[in-house]
Hints:
The structure holds 2 protein chains of 2 kinds.
Chain A: H1 3-13, E1 16-20, H2 30-41, E2 48-51, H3 56-65, E3 73-76, E4 79-82, H4 84-93, H5 95-106
Parallel strand pairs in A: 1-2
Antiparallel strand pairs in A: 1-3, 3-4
Helix pairs in contact in A: 1-3, 2-4
Chain B: H1 4-14, E1 19-24, E2 28-34, H2 43-54, H3 56-60, E3 64-70, H4 72-76
Parallel strand pairs in B: 2-3
Antiparallel strand pairs in B: 1-2
Helix pairs in contact in B: 1-2
Amino acid sequence: MDAQQKIREQVTGNPVVLYMKGTPQMPQCGFSALAVQVLQACGVTQIFTVNVLAEPEIREGIKHYANWPTIPQLYVNGEFVGGADIVKEMYQSGELHKLLEGAKQQA
Amino acid sequence: MVAPESVKSSIEAGLACAHVEVIGDGEHFQALVVSSAFEGKSRVQRHQLVYAALGERMRVEIHALSMRTLTPLEWRSGG
């Protein structure tokens, strides 16, 4: 399976998917840590996370998948939501809560 | 090391901007980009326009770019 196919299966097979550097317990980058914190603050308990530092093919492939050159990347219900800045802005405006409520119902 | 000024120039060269501010430490940057090209675009689309302007530099030289992307109207109303 190539990286694009694997990514498609990950993002469509799980309601909330975060591509990050490190793990939620041990994030290796401040932006990835921020994304995890924001999701947890929204009450998301089930985050499917992919540590791109451990998977070089995914790290490269994910940049092409959403035409987005940076990590972290958040996907909800198969849709690309954004990187750290966008996730933070959506959290502050309340949009992220609404989006994630929808994801929990589908899960 | 990449100078914030050089990141600013690249953004301006690739995207018609009304206003750009960039600060940074040589690897991590923060930018405020104001452009009428953002009108009617989602946040994701706006960031993609800036990333496109930076092209390969985003892959090679710039570790992280945190940005606020506003239309001239949003900027005037305090963003």
